[in-house]
Design goal:
The chain is an alpha/beta fold and 432 residues long. The chain folds into 4 domains: 91 residues, MurE/MurF, N-terminal domain (Udp-n-acetylmuramoylalanyl-d-glutamate--2,6- Diaminopimelate Ligase, Chain: A, domain 1), CATH 3.40.1390; 202 residues, Hexapeptide repeat proteins (UDP N-Acetylglucosamine Acyltransferase, domain 1); 49 residues, UDP-galactose 4-epimerase, domain 1, CATH 3.90.25.10; 33 residues. The protein is 15% helix and 25% strand. The protein has 6 helices and 40 strands. The strands form 7 sheets. The protein has an 11-stranded mixed sheet with strand order 8-11-14-17-22-25-28-31-34-36-37. The protein has a 10-stranded mixed sheet with strand order 7-9-12-15-18-23-26-29-32-35, with no helix packed on it. Strands 10-13-16-21-24-27-30-33 form an 8-stranded parallel sheet, with no helix packed on it. Strand 38 and strand 39 form a beta hairpin. The two termini are 52 Å apart. About 2% of the residues have low confidence.
Length: 432
């Protein structure tokens, strides 16, 4: 969070006062005292700021941080620069929460804006903006020319909206910067407090959410979407990215340019998605992941690990589409290899182990039809079962390999039935 016009900030605070507040495990009595100006992400932290490191996944950026001090653990402190003071604690997120509340005491709740004014009373302030009925606007809101704001909208204090934007009815925007040519459809909520809680014993502790939402130029947000503001860093959706209806984007998520997401996609906190990525409907993506550029994720997939550039994945857990195809053909004793790239990629037979299903070696058995290169519509939502395992002791009975086998057994049985009828002189219909 490089700048923050949305929250009242306190401080600075002496480093030793912060050390005392977070119950460090080491003795820092000999550390030279100086003022800490704020808490920031590893990337955004400056020489007088404090940051935090709670996972080795971020070691590449943690080694480059400019922060004066970092809340971390003894086993992670090695991933920080020597000049950075390592503040080792038992519970990193709890310590960060305590420090964040010191600087931003009112950021743990989504306090309503009580300074709203009916747009009819301040139309002279926005002479080139078109307002519907019953629109309420907070203090210091900036709205550029040729923007339309639908009826029953709320735009809270300090929000910035660019030119030529279209804001549908019943939209709420807070803690956000909206760039030019953005379209937000009816019922969406932008800048809502992220789902930040820390379970301590029998109690959940709210974590402050002091970031904002930034929508790049030409972004389109579908109806009834929710985009959470960042916890420390910002939630960012890149230029010309389109979101369908009923999509949830959690705090600190970074989405690149020219992406497309079908309805009911859910992206957990602090996940980064590259440019030109397409995500099918009802796909779920876990937190703190890195999804590369030019990735295609099938509908209803559950993504629980990083995905490299130019990948196509589907299923739960999401696997490369090539692997799924290979597993399917393997059930019939047929081994494949893939050649080509993109829409020109094809699969060819390299061996047939089952005497019932003999195909010519080198035969092309799969190709991509560009007509169908798009997010797929699905009827089933498949999510992350981690909580069910941890809290209920539930263990899944079936894995992907079993499901592929079951699918192929059914398809092969149907094929044998049709072949039997055909050999008996009957005509069978194929609707696909």
């Amino acid at each position: 969070m490089v700048s923050n016009q949305f929250f009242v900030k306190k401080g600075p605070y002496p480093l030793k006062e912060i050390i005392k507040a977070i119950d460090c495990t080491n003795n820092y009595s000999n550390v030279k005292d100086f003022e800490i100006h704020g808490v920031e992400s590893l990337v955004n932290a400056k020489e007088n700021d404090m940051t935090f490191l709670n996972s080795s996944r971020y070691k590449d950026v943690s080694l480059k941080t400019k922060a004066a001090a970092c809340i971390t653990s003894s086993n992670l402190s090695k991933f920080l620069p020597n000049k950075c003071i390592k503040l080792n604690v038992k519970n990193i997120l709890l310590a960060v929460t305590k420090v964040s509340k010191m600087f931003y005491p009112k950021a743990d709740l989504d306090y309503p804006d009580i300074n709203l004014i009916d747009s009819n009373e301040i139309k002279n302030k926005y002479p080139e903006v078109n307002f519907g009925k019953n629109v309420f606007i907070g203090k210091n809101v900036q709205i550029d020319k040729n923007t339309f704001v639908g009826s029953n909208c709320i735009i809270e204090s300090n929000v910035k909206i660019g030119k030529n934007c279209v804001i549908g009815s019943l939209v709420i925007i807070k803690y956000s910067i909206i760039n030019d040519y953005v379209c937000i459809k009816d019922g969406s909520k932008i800048g809502i407090k992220g789902f930040g809680f820390i379970p301590i014993g029998q109690k959940n502790i709210r974590t402050p959410q002091i970031g904002k939402v930034i929508l790049g130029e030409g972004v389109e947000i579908g109806a009834n979407c929710t985009i959470d503001r960042g916890s420390v860093s910002d939630t960012i959706i890149g230029r010309n990215t389109f979101l369908d209806n009923h999509i949830q984007i959690a705090h600190n998520v970074k989405i690149g340019t020219n992406c497309m997401m079908a309805a009911q996609v859910g992206i957990a906190g602090s996940t980064t998605i590259g440019d030109n990525t397409v995500i099918g409907g009802q796909a779920g993506i876990s937190g703190h992941l890195k999804i590369g550029n030019n990735v295609k994720i099938g509908g209803a997939s559950g993504v629980i690990r990083d995905i490299p550039d130019n990948s196509q994945v589907m299923g739960y857990p999401a696997v490369p589409l090539r692997d799924f195809v290979k597993m399917s053909f393997a059930e019939a004793g047929i081994a494949l290899e893939f050649k080509g790239e993109g829409v020109n990629e094809k699969a060819f037979v390299i061996s047939c182990a089952n005497p019932e299903y003999q195909l010519e070696i080198g035969k092309e058995v799969l190709a991509i039809d560009p007509i169908y290169v798009r997010p797929t519509e699905v009827e089933l939502l498949i999510g992350d079962a981690t909580k069910a395992k941890e809290k209920l002791g539930w263990i899944p009975e079936y894995d992907l390999k079993f499901l592929v086998k079951e699918m192929m057994d059914s398809d092969l049985h149907l094929m044998q039935k049709k072949q039997y009828l055909k050999e008996g002189g009957y005509t069978t219909l194929n609707y696909f």
